[in-house]
Write a structure and sequence with these properties.
Strand content: under 5%
Order of helices and strands: HHHHHHHHH
Organism: Mytilus edulis
Protein name: CARD domain-containing protein
Number of strands: 0
Helix content: over 70%
Radius of gyration: 56 Å
Number of helices: 9
Distance between the termini: 161 Å
Structural class: mainly alpha
Oligomer: single chain
Keywords: Coiled coil
Shape: elongated
Pfam families: CARD (PF00619)
Amino acid sequence: MMDEFERQSLYNCRHEFYDNVDSDKFVQKLHNHGVLSESQRQKIQRCKSNREKMANVLQTVSFGNHDCYQNIVSIMKEEYPMIANKMELELLKERTSNSRDVNESLIEIINEQLLPIVYGKGKSNEEDFSSKRPHSSVSRLSELIRQLQLRKIKEQQEVVRQLKEEINEIKSPKKKNQSLHEELDEINLAEKIYQLRKELQDQHERVRLLQLSVHSKESTVLDLKTENAIIQNEIQELRKQRPLGKLQVNLLFDD
């Protein structure tokens, strides 16, 4: 099947086919060379105008096998060499344009993604790549990937070194004793904190009970004061009534 570049090249040359090529002869040659089947030839011949036939031909051959484009170029060279040359130039242009686009995308990836990873942001190490020199971009990409691999290896080596140091420290008797003492100190400290908290809670409870006792005594004192006031009032009343009582008694005995 034709690739996308061949189909685009054929499309770019369509007006040359419409204006200059005899569709009937062209269809017959395509059929003779096995580019068109008999059913395809008959279907195209049913079209009325030369332009309609040629448009149908180009549409049909666009889905031909991978040799179809070169077969058409060979057929065109027999009677229409200028169109054949244009077909070859258009195909070359399409493939070159695609290569240039790929190379430009590659350069963009290198400059905007890989270089900041390798050298860090803000450190420009861009080189003047040209889209006309794709091999330089590929070489540069290969070099950057190699540097990334080396950096990764160094990072892994550093991680291994740190792990070895930690393992050696754990295995060290001095480290073990130090760790044991630290754990004991932490246990003793935790025990002391627990005792202090317990004593503090006991003190809070004693204070609470004392406050309740004081409150109860204050209430009792208040009740006593109230009773004392009542008694004092009663005494005052009695003192007021005592002389009158004596007078009444004397009067009774006077008779």
